[in-house]
Write a structure and sequence with these properties.
Layout lengths: L1 E2 L1 E4 L2 E4 L2 H6 L4 E5 L14 H9 L3 H6 L7 E3 L6 E5 L10 H18 L10 E3 L11 H13 L5 E3 L3
Parallel strand pairs: 1-8, 4-6, 7-8
Antiparallel strand pairs: 2-3, 5-6
Helix pairs in contact: 4-5
């Protein structure tokens, strides 16, 4: 799994989730597994809120499929990947759930291949579970994701 930097006039800029989203690149969107009273996926904070604000139909669309499963959607030509990091939005992120989500993502990509769609890669994985989820990227989450994705160039993430 590569880290994401781009060279601009002899300087390096760290790409962000927002950069990937704006460029139409595929991004993992960390979510919980909680539905609100209207049956929509709760996406009220962090990166999930940023995406839900941009694509207001997404919480309803993502609630239609089993929670905790990997789900690809393409609003406005962007590839967004639902990626569960916690069971309830009030909980801390769950490292076991992050591991299961990562293995499911890897399995879907390996199974489907996507060789016919090279524009799908690389998939950007932000620091899932580390903002509002309370986990440590360098000590907990990155090592887990690195074990799952290794040096596979189809995935990129922030440096630890």
């Amino acid at each position: 799994m590569r880290t994401v930097y781009a060279q601009y006039e002899d300087n390096y800029k760290l790409f962000t989730f927002q950069d990937y989203l704006e460029a139409g690149k595929p991004v993992v969107v960390p979510t919980n597994c909680t539905l609100d009273s209207e049956g929509r996926l709760v996406m009220g904070a962090g990166l999930a809120k940023l995406v839900a604000d941009r694509f207001p139909d997404l919480p309803s669309l993502w609630a239609e499929k089993p929670l905790g499963e990997i789900l690809f959607t393409q609003p406005e030509g962007r590839v967004l990947i639902r990626f569960a990091t916690k069971y309830h939005y009030k909980d801390r992120a769950d490292l076991g759930l992050i591991g299961r989500s990562a293995r499911k993502l890897r399995g879907v990509i390996d199974q489907l291949g996507f060789a016919f769609q090279p524009s799908l890669f690389p998939i950007y994985i932000p620091q899932v579970g580390c903002g509002l989820g309370g986990l440590d990227w360098a000590e907990q989450v990155y090592p887990l994701l690195d074990k799952i994705f290794g040096d596979d160039p189809r995935y990129v993430c922030d440096a630890p």
